[in-house]
């Protein structure tokens, strides 16, 4: 069985919605540094409330727009 990892698609979101990481930070009330760590895969743990705040800030109903399960190669 292949190992899997979660990808947080912050870069895709900010590009799709034409906003900056700072603007997403303001809208979601999550520090820029925390969003940057999520976006760059630097966090080992993901807080569910951060995902919820991002979804609410971006008016997203499908969590698949924010996270994706990927195979590790």
Automatic annotation (TrEMBL):
Superkingdom of origin organism: Bacteria
Gene3D superfamilies from the UniProt entry: lambda repressor-like DNA-binding domains (1.10.260.40)
Annotated ranges, domain HTH cro/C1-type: 10-66
PROSITE patterns: HTH_CROC1 (PS50943)
Signal peptide stretch: none
InterPro entries on file: Cro/C1-type_HTH, Lambda_DNA-bd_dom_sf
GO MF, any single term: DNA binding
Pfam family, one: HTH_26
The protein's name in its UniProt record: Transcriptional regulator
Organism: Enterococcus rivorum
């Amino acid at each position: 069985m292949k190992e899997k990892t979660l990808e947080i698609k912050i870069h895709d979101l900010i590009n799709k919605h034409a906003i900056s990481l700072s603007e997403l930070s303001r809208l979601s009330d999550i520090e820029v540094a925390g969003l940057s760590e999520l976006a760059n895969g630097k966090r080992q743990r993901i807080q569910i409330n951060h995902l919820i705040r991002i979804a609410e800030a971006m008016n997203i109903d499908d969590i698949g727009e924010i996270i994706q399960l990927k195979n590790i190669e």
